[in-house]
Design goal:
Structural class: alpha+beta
Strand content: 35-45%
Distance between the termini: 17 Å
Strand order of the largest sheet: 7-6-11-4-3-16-19-18
Shape: globular
Largest sheet: 8 strands, mixed
CATH class of the largest domain: Mainly Beta
CATH topology of the largest domain: Immunoglobulin-like
Amino acid sequence: MSSLINRITKPRMFAIMALVYSFQAFASAEPVSLKDITRGTLISRNEQGELEDIPLLNSEIHSEVTGQIARTTIVQHFKNPAASWMEALYLFPLPHDAAVDQMKMTVGDRVIEGQIKEREEAKATYEKAKSEGKQAALVEQDRTNIFSTSVANIPPNGHVTITLEYQQSIEWRDGEFSIRFPLTITPRYTVNTPAKFEVTSTVQLNDGWSLLPNERPQEIPLEEADNTPDNSTSIEVVLKPGFQLSELESLHHNVTVNAKPDGTQVVSLVDQDVRADQDFVLRWKPIDSVKPTASFFSESTSKGDFGLLTLIPPTVDGWEVPPREVIFVIDTSGSMSGQSIVAARDALMAGVNGLSKDDTFNIIEFNKNSYSLFARPQEAYGYSLSHARKFIRNLEARDGTEMEPALDMALNMPGESDRLQQIIFITDGSVSNEAQLFAKINRELGTRRLFTVGIGSAPNTYFMEESAHVGQGTYTYIADLNFAEQAMKALFEKISKPALTNIKVMGYGVSDITPNVIPDLYAGEPLTVAMKMDRGVKRILITGRLGDTEWKQTAVIDSVGHQAGIGVDWARKMIAQWQRAAFKGVERKRVREEVLALALEHHLVSPYTSLVAVDVTPVRPLKDGLDTKSIPPTRPKGLEINLAKGVTGYELSLMIAALLALFGTLLVMTKREEV
């Protein structure tokens, strides 16, 4: 062997060495250790595998919850540690119902307020300012729950602070209130665009896995879990619930609670800064004697009067559970690796164990392919049940997320229409083609109901909640993966009871009620609607059907309060309603016109509007260049990637085989030349 190698020509030897070096750098590059990452510095690798500094990112979150509205401020600090001028690009998550309406940029003592503009105009304004050497910031909505910040012309060793403000309505379900701050992003899988290796003539390899490929190039380093940037975040929530609390808990983070004499609870992190690798979730419950069954908050503004009504419909005890047909759909794609697939298996096993012998069921597994355990739903006992349990225990996470074929299987599964037909979808929702999937659910659901179960430290909540809304079901978030079984038991208990269906909301003195189509409501779930209101007395009539019983409730409103943010909340919900209309076939031009008008009037970031802030004074000499750096988000906690660079075993085998084949070819060619 050594004699053959000695006879290989120098050019070929150089080619072999380059490929081998490239492979070694890819498969076994020395990871950045913890000592390389210090407070005030973020370190990444460039395409040559060299360490380099990128702009510092540190975030502060402050939220005030009053009644049913939360007003949140996020402060993002950017630093340029380099000796050249820089542009920073950062992708970050927000709640899917966040109404982003304010932004300001602070550079030294200068504060520049952001203005809402049509997206194309805002982008052009930003690019012009960047090219002219002016400091500028742009906030865009990449998805309903993913936003981006671009900051141009950060001076050498300079600091820039971006402050965003948004609001959202508080979730109220099963007698419990909660608020969630997304801190990281589970990578979205784009249909028919799987991750690929790129080997160029200069033997460079692009590492990392992309978020929103083909939309915004953004990568997360994969050397080690601790090598992704901390993006350290401090959090404070000022909670003014308006009633006494029996419970107040943070699901993932250690917090301290400072109770004020007026009932205000100030919640902050025990550790002042935390690694932003899982969502912050805060829950609270009132004492039983003051547990609300209804609420109404309103606001009078220059744009009109607005209201937000929430009430809990009644339940019927002793209802006989009808026989059901339950189709379980479980996501076993690569983004479910690590803790998520363990929790998903537990949740699915609990769901199957919760079936009665009168039920029928089936299981659909999907990753880049979809598989149905049975050709049609089977009775939930005997061989079918034992075979399903064995199948569940062997589930593993791998490959991409091709969700649409699995939905096709579930929505078109042959079954018995006289049964209560339910689809339970267990996933982290890491897809990018949400609109396409929503339209399919809307078209093909029929009499079935779709229930989503969110798994992981940072699930795609927008997809999960919107799918359940379109599917007239409900969404369950398993925040603590150790309680997956318990969460599924609670879900089964809920959906085995009759739902309030055929819900209608009408009113005198009110208009533009949203949502205009209300999904079925299950035990413990509130009905929440937002509306515009006329002056004077208002009367709202809500009707529905509970089994064979007609249900009606009337709310009379004779005054308007001063709860700030109700008008913006209504506008955000109306935007969501118009976006939903697109799934049902409303012309996209009409949707754009309506969303654009609402966003401009209420100063909101939307798919068609962005916030842009520009300092009028140029600061960068035009002769100096401008480097662009992408700031990678932190990898979600519990997400595991095979090998250091996210390569699957199959892909690694292909690379090894390709290198060996090339090596062998070069040896053969050398021997032939000698003959």
